[in-house]
């Protein structure tokens, strides 16, 4: 939320409240999953209430969970990724917004590309990527 506040105060950029809420919900979900890596966690990000599970990566590797959202009315694509270790501990996260229009599958592909680039910049080599695209 600080990012959006700072953009409003310093760059005079308005952000739709739905975008702020969805971004917050995404990071809350990442935090919940990181705190309970072996539990079943409901995905509430897109209104989907089916049960999902998260399995840790092997010892010595990291897992990068990637997700994206399309806001058609605002022509915005939001994406995020979080890195966790084999114990499920949160290592680092990133989020990014892009102006544009695409379908959810394309947004997930763009998010995956951005996450690959981000992980490469972090000099991480043993990383398993996980997306929820269908």
The gist of it:
Mean pLDDT is 81; it is low at 38-46. The protein contains 3 helices and 6 strands.
What's the layout of helices and strands?
Blueprint: H1 2-11, H2 17-35, E1 40-42, E2 51-53, E3 62-71, E4 76-84, E5 90-99, H3 104-121, E6 127-131
Parallel strand pairs: 3-6
Antiparallel strand pairs: 1-2, 3-4, 4-5
In what order do the strands lie side by side in the largest sheet? Answer: 5-4-3-6
SS elements, strand count: 6
SSE string, helices as H and strands as E: HHEEEEEHE
Q: Bin the helical content.
A: 25-40%
Structural class: alpha+beta
Strand proportion, as a percent range, falls in 25-35%
CATH class equals: Alpha Beta
Helix count from the secondary structure assignment: 3
Task: Tell me the Rg in angstroms.
Answer: 15 Å
The CATH topology annotation reads as Ubiquitin-like (UB roll)
Largest sheet: 4 strands, mixed
Q: In the residues, how many domains can be counted?
A: 1
Low-confidence regions: 38-46
Name the overall outline: globular
CATH architecture: Roll
The whole-number mean of residue pLDDT values reads 81
Task: Note the main attributes of this structure.
two-stranded antiparallel sheet; 30% strand; 134 residues; Ubiquitin-like (UB roll)
Description:
One of its GO terms (molecular function) is RNA-DNA hybrid ribonuclease activity. This is RNase H type-1 domain-containing protein. Residues 65-133 form the RNase H type-1 domain. This protein has a single domain (2-131), classed as Ubiquitin-like (UB roll) (Roll), CATH 3.10.20. The radius of gyration is 15 Å and the shape is globular. It has helices at residues 2-11, 17-35, 104-121; strands at residues 40-42, 51-53, 62-71, 76-84, 90-99, 127-131. With 134 residues, the chain is an alpha+beta fold. The model is unreliable at 38-46 (pLDDT under 50). Strand 1 and strand 2 form a beta hairpin. It has a four-stranded mixed sheet with strand order 5-4-3-6, with helices on both faces. Strands 1-2 form a two-stranded antiparallel ribbon. Helix content is 35%, strand content 30%. The longest helix has 19 residues, at 17-35. It is built from three helices and six strands.
